[in-house]
Give the backbone structure.
Amino acid sequence: MIKKSWIIIFIVTISFTVHGQYSQYMVNGLVINPAYAGSRDGLSLSAHYAKVWTGIAGMPEQEILSAHFPLKNDKLAFGMIIGNRTAGSTHSMFGSLDYTFRIHLKKSILGLGLRAGIDYKDENFNQLYFDPNMPQDPVFINNTLTEPNAGFGIYYYSKRFFTGFSIPRMITYKFSDTTSYSYGPTLQPQYAHYMFSAGALIGEIDGFKWRPSFLAQYLGTVSDYRLDINSMFIFLKDRVWLGASYRMGGNTVASQVVGIIELKMNDQFMLGYSYDYTMGQFSSVLNATHEVYLRYDFVYKIRAANPRYF
């Protein structure tokens, strides 16, 4: 019999592998939408580190590096993501390349993006404890998996508003039946991942701005949805960004409240930190999730006069 603690880790591993942990996707939309590529008006480099539920052995950790940039004609843009993830008995590496076609409207831009990606997973179930008197479940056999994937996105933005729709993972992988335990891809639309986001920049009183936004996700089953409601306040000449999010739904064990602080050191460099707190009866068991974010923009001159808030 598998120890109870490892059952929890296994469930969280599945959730983290499918959903990822991006509490600060608002400042790097590329992680959820390939059409975001090029929206920073120059080469933009980002780095994320997330540690989920610190203090519990085997909880997920994730590192992500991303880059995106428009070409000189500004009609085409490219992006890339590479990452490393450890969760329970599973270690995985993943990467993607994004291509975006940008349509310049009068005071806004519409991006149409495509993504090609691949995940490499190494599952080492030798770390789990099994009852030696029970036959081993065929599901719990060490595996090395390579999973190609593809995605699509639409991203529309202006100086004061943005909205986007994406299917970052159009191909899902699952066991085909309970007898052969064959594992493979499926293109069935009901199992794809759908994401819709929108936000606005409101007010500018003495340099004080408010940026509300939301992210709605559908992740493969009728019950597997998630909604993030976000609020960010920007002040001190855009140098300090202070906000909070409320996350609910999905296969998370409970709702979460997220506190976010971001410091814009100059027109190019931003540093961010988020603290996720699990609410309800699990709050005393599941410690906080921490995420650190760095972004550096190699901006053109136009950026200083027309800064991006999305």
The chain has one domain: 4-305. The chain has two helices and 17 strands.
